[in-house]
Design a protein that fits this description.
Helix content is 16%, strand content 39%. The radius of gyration is 14 Å and the shape is globular. The two termini are 17 Å apart.
Length: 95
């Protein structure tokens, strides 16, 4: 899984979002415990073998991820990204 980063990054580039050698599955809107609080990310990417969280994906629709949730992800050492739904909806598949 690769991501193309262009907003907030000086150079348009692609970067690997997940380890190349790991198989994974995706959960949608499942609660997880982070720092003694329950958090419900939009998508959780987990390793098939260990069930370790490899990546959390937040979808920015009505509002961005708030500071408290950002802090929980950072303090729990969870890799995460936020994707603008309007950017994804506005792109054509051939781009």
């Amino acid at each position: 899984m690769r991501g193309c980063f262009h907003s907030g990054v000086a150079v348009r580039a692609t970067s690997r979002l997940l380890p190349e050698d790991r198989r994974f599955f995706i959960e949608r809107e499942r609660p997880i415990r982070l720092l003694d609080r329950t958090t419900i990310p939009d998508l959780i990417v987990r390793c098939t073998r260990t069930h370790e969280i490899l990546l959390v994906i937040e979808v920015w629709h009505t509002h961005a991820v708030n500071d408290a949730k950002r802090s929980r992800f950072a303090s729990a050492d969870v890799r995460w990204i936020e994707v603008s739904c309007w950017h994804v909806i506005g792109r054509r598949r051939d781009e």
